């Protein structure tokens, strides 16, 4: 009987979601994901479809926190060409003690951040949020699959593919990141 019920559920999901859908299906494209903003509003990443996206896990009390300034400068420089930075605060490394409101106020006041920031959630370990499950599956690190520190960066092209990953020590102004972003911006959809 349980097998029959499972079959009916799969069949019903196929009718509702499409022929290949399943309740446990993993997204193949970054733009299929969503996350809650710091204010609690659900943001479907389909709104970023066609943009080049730099995803960064952030923390307010980290030695790399000044990178927020460079990320904001990059965002402003390339936004008109279809570029966006998405920040994901996390306390995985015990350097983001504030709640969502405090995180937002700090980023705006200290570094003038205007790019979107999302709900403070884990980016590593067994409880990591779906966005980071996707990113680390598509682009595992050299030594570890998981994010190993604050301010790791993932670059997503206009097609929703994760094409690059950088460690925390790579500054937003590095030639490696700038060249990859510019190349991705030049690629057609």
Automatic annotation (TrEMBL):
InterPro entries: Glutathione_peroxidase (IPR000889), GPX_AS (IPR029759), Thioredoxin-like_sf (IPR036249), Thioredoxin_domain (IPR013766). One of its GO terms (molecular function) is peroxidase activity. It comes from the Bacteria. Residues 22-186 form the Thioredoxin domain. Pfam families: GSHPx. CDD domains: GSH_Peroxidase. Belongs to the glutathione peroxidase family. PANTHER family: GLUTATHIONE PEROXIDASE. This is Glutathione peroxidase. It comes from Bdellovibrio reynosensis.
């Amino acid at each position: 009987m349980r097998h029959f019920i499972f079959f009916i559920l799969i069949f019903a999901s196929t009718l509702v979601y499409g022929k290949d859908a399943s309740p446990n299906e993993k997204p193949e494209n970054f733009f299929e994901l969503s996350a809650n903003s710091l204010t609690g509003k659900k943001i479907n990443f389909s709104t970023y479809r066609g943009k080049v996206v730099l995803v960064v896990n952030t923390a307010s009390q980290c030695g790399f926190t000044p990178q927020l300034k460079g990320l904001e400068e990059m965002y402003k420089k390339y936004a008109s060409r279809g570029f966006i930075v998405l920040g994901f605060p996390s306390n995985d490394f015990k350097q983001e003690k504030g709640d969502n409101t405090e995180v937002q106020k700090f980023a705006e006041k200290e570094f003038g951040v205007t790019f979107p920031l999302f709900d403070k959630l884990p980016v590593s370990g067994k409880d990591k949020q779906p966005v980071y499950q996707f990113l680390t599956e598509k682009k595992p690190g050299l030594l570890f699959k998981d994010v190993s520190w604050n301010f790791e960066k993932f670059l997503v092209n206009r097609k929703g593919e994760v094409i690059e990953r950088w460690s925390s020590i790579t500054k937003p102004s590095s030639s490696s990141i700038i060249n990859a972003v510019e190349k991705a911006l030049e690629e057609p959809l």
